[in-house]
């Protein structure tokens, strides 16, 4: 009903605007007075956690992209291999699982049958399972050894938005907790990242407040486009995949997300005059090689006539050079940038779907939670 939407035209609109709150609430109560991470709910003893030598994330759809983002951070912080696998592929290829493997199931609903079957298999093989879930008492957390709840609040729109940012935050907390327990990072470093995480809600709010008009104008301009390519590198790669998925799900547009480095290995063949290409540009600070490579990717598609939509850090002069439209992100660390970069892409998909007259909350053929295999 209109009242449930709290004045927003759709649940999706409301939920995108709850991204900042979803991040803030997922951080709430997860630190002690000294600023150390306390995850009491993760009832796996520290000795057991210390023995974990590999993490396998299983998930479907948007949740799997949160896993892909987390992989970059957790491997960097904890120095143990992290694999991310679609839950429905995982079980059928005789995956290697040991008591030292931690399987992390990410699921907003906690009822996705493919993910549930994957964790059952993992537990049968003697691995421990931790669920990152947004729904108290759902099947996946019930059948897991431990659970870390995202506190995004109920998500009604079929296309996942606020749950995605909350999943990234929860997975990051888990990674930092591991780093704390295993001693792979200095306490100060962990505290520093926690501080940065705590500043993300206001950065997301800034994007919502200042970029929505540009996003809407760009959507209006591109509403008749038949296909979109999304490119990103490093953590921008899963953001590209998620941006592509959102647009496909609710605006029924053919989209593909690619790792920007793959451009020359295939996707560039698709680019001709007017083809919209969305590019997530990493910060130019610190990681200039990555930044330069992504920028030259924009230059290449632009040279072939692409319509370029760029997500870039405020004040990045290179990003603008070959861009037809820019969605700005406030300055933030690279590993945390997906939390802001996905926001204009969520808005963009919603605007496109609205402009085409579709029901953004209930896209055709899709279910909020798929409880069959
Ligand atoms: C369905 C939804 C997607 C969601 C996926 C995983 O396909 O339409 O939006 O990402 O399921 O759902 P889960 O509840 O496990 O996160």
UniProtKB/TrEMBL annotation:
<comment type="subunit">
    <text>Homodimer.</text>
</comment>
<dbReference type="GO" id="GO:0004360">
    <property type="term" value="F:glutamine-fructose-6-phosphate transaminase (isomerizing) activity"/>
</dbReference>
<keyword id="KW-0963">Cytoplasm</keyword>
<dbReference type="GO" id="GO:0006047">
    <property type="term" value="P:UDP-N-acetylglucosamine metabolic process"/>
</dbReference>
<comment type="function">
    <text>Catalyzes the first step in hexosamine metabolism, converting fructose-6P into glucosamine-6P using glutamine as a nitrogen source.</text>
</comment>
<dbReference type="GO" id="GO:0006002">
    <property type="term" value="P:fructose 6-phosphate metabolic process"/>
</dbReference>
<protein>
    <recommendedName>
        <fullName>Glutamine--fructose-6-phosphate aminotransferase [isomerizing]</fullName>
        <ecNumber>2.6.1.16</ecNumber>
    </recommendedName>
</protein>
<keyword id="KW-0677">Repeat</keyword>
<dbReference type="GO" id="GO:0005975">
    <property type="term" value="P:carbohydrate metabolic process"/>
</dbReference>
<keyword id="KW-0032">Aminotransferase</keyword>
<keyword id="KW-0808">Transferase</keyword>
<dbReference type="GO" id="GO:0006487">
    <property type="term" value="P:protein N-linked glycosylation"/>
</dbReference>
<dbReference type="GO" id="GO:0097367">
    <property type="term" value="F:carbohydrate derivative binding"/>
</dbReference>
<feature type="domain" description="SIS">
    <location>
        <begin position="44"/>
        <end position="184"/>
    </location>
</feature>
<keyword id="KW-0315">Glutamine amidotransferase</keyword>
<feature type="domain" description="SIS">
    <location>
        <begin position="218"/>
        <end position="363"/>
    </location>
</feature>
<feature type="active site" description="For Fru-6P isomerization activity">
    <location>
        <position position="368"/>
    </location>
</feature>
<dbReference type="GO" id="GO:0005829">
    <property type="term" value="C:cytosol"/>
</dbReference>
